């Protein structure tokens, strides 16, 4: 973790750790992060947004598709990573400098999110303030401070308070100007608060009246990070053998998943609202997924075929940030398309390279997304081999 600006650390990309990796580093965590970011690149870059296979699209409102698992997985990973990055320091170093490091990194992540929203527009009056990187920054800040200053029991209690309290706010508190509490996109309490604090000009441009990464929804998103904190601390328990840790993770993850499904009956699973049932459901799946990877990679020492995921995992924020900027730039770069009309370079490349080869528009769109993942895999592979890791 560096100070206030991105930095390149040439010696920081070692070869894949050998079998029997010490508990100070989890191969499974790099693999899980890499899988998550690869999925994020895949669903964010279809060849044609009008032709997307259902599992690669978000749920319309209530419900959860495989795509809706990606962002909570990343926030869960943030929580686990904090434990492995800060556990030794919080025990031996003064807390003041450590908290300042956490705040600086959160500020840089938030700033990168604003830069991404401003890129090629540079209009502060309409820049979207919430967003993926902004939420990652706030979750990292909240979970970092909690990890340094609280025990795991206090974190577990706070998780329960956040989830129950958020449920009460959204389903019992009347919405000013609209009446009774509700869970509709533009009239729920969170949407009202976003408009009050940020103004419609600074919200998601697809709606203008609500934002899927809004202010109030960040509270349960911190809960997702706390679940990662608890799992990370469980993995570092020296009182349990590896098999015991894996069993503990599967039991805890399964219980969270089931509780999320039960809660869904009156507080529906919903990514945009980041409902409490969604936190438990996705956190449970994330816990069991990490448990399986931990058993496979760190306990059994399996290494074959995991390198593509590792190279994505060690430069996760870099590829997410740069892929968004490049896609936006390619969309703005106008070229002459079919029939002589101007079109964005990204669309032109898709129509030229993929549409003629794949008659099925859904398959062509998927092929375009997979090509994007493969291009970034090549770039990140070279960076990994040259020991280049960009940290913020």
UniProtKB/TrEMBL annotation:
The keyword Membrane applies. Keywords: Membrane, Transmembrane, Transmembrane helix. The chain crosses the membrane at residues 69-86, 106-122, 128-148, 155-173, 214-235, 247-266, 278-297, 309-327, 362-384. It comes from the Bacteria. The keyword Transmembrane applies. Residues 25-165 form the Heparan-alpha-glucosaminide N-acetyltransferase catalytic domain. InterPro entries: HGSNAT_cat (IPR012429). This is DUF1624 domain-containing protein. It comes from Hymenobacter metallicola.
């Amino acid at each position: 973790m560096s100070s206030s600006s991105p930095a390149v650390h040439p010696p920081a990309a070692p070869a894949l750790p050998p079998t029997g990796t010490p508990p100070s580093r989890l191969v499974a965590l790099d693999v899980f992060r890499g899988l998550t970011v690869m999925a994020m690149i895949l669903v964010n870059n279809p060849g044609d947004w009008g032709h997307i296979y259902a599992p690669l699209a978000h749920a319309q409102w209530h419900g959860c598709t495989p795509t809706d698992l990606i962002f909570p997985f990343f926030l869960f990973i943030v929580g686990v990573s904090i434990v492995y990055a800060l556990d030794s320091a919080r025990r031996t170093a003064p807390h003041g400098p450590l908290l300042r490091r956490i705040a600086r990194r959160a500020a840089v992540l938030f700033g990168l999110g604003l830069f991404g929203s401003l890129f090629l527009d540079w209009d502060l009056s309409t820049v979207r303030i919430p967003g993926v990187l902004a939420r990652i920054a706030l979750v990292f800040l909240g979970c970092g401070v909690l990890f340094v200053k609280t025990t795991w029991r206090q974190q577990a209690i706070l998780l329960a308070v956040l989830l129950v309290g958020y449920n009460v706010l959204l389903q019992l508190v009347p919405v000013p100007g609209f009446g009774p509490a509700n869970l509709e996109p533009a009239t729920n309490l969170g949407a009202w608060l976003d408009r009050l604090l940020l103004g419609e000009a600074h919200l998601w441009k697809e709606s203008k009246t609500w934002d899927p990464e809004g202010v109030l929804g960040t509270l349960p998103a911190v809960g997702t990070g706390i679940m990662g904190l608890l799992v990370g601390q469980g993995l570092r328990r020296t009182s349990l053998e590896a098999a015991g840790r894996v069993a503990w993770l599967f039991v805890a993850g399964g219980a969270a998943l089931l509780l999320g499904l039960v809660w869904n009956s009156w507080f529906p699973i919903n990514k945009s609202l980041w409902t409490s049932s969604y936190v438990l459901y996705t956190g449970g799946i994330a816990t069991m997924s990490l448990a399986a990877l931990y058993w496979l990679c760190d306990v059994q020492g399996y290494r074959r075929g995991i390198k593509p995921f590792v190279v994505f995992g060690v430069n996760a924020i870099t590829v997410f940030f740069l892929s968004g900027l490049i896609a936006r730039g390619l969309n703005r770069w106008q070229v002459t398309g079919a029939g002589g009309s101007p079109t964005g370079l990204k669309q032109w490349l898709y129509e030229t390279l993929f549409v003629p080869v794949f008659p099925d528009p859904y398959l062509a769109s998927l092929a375009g997304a997979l090509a994007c993942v493969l291009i970034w895999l090549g770039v990140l592979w070279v960076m990994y081999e040259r020991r280049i890791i960009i940290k913020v």
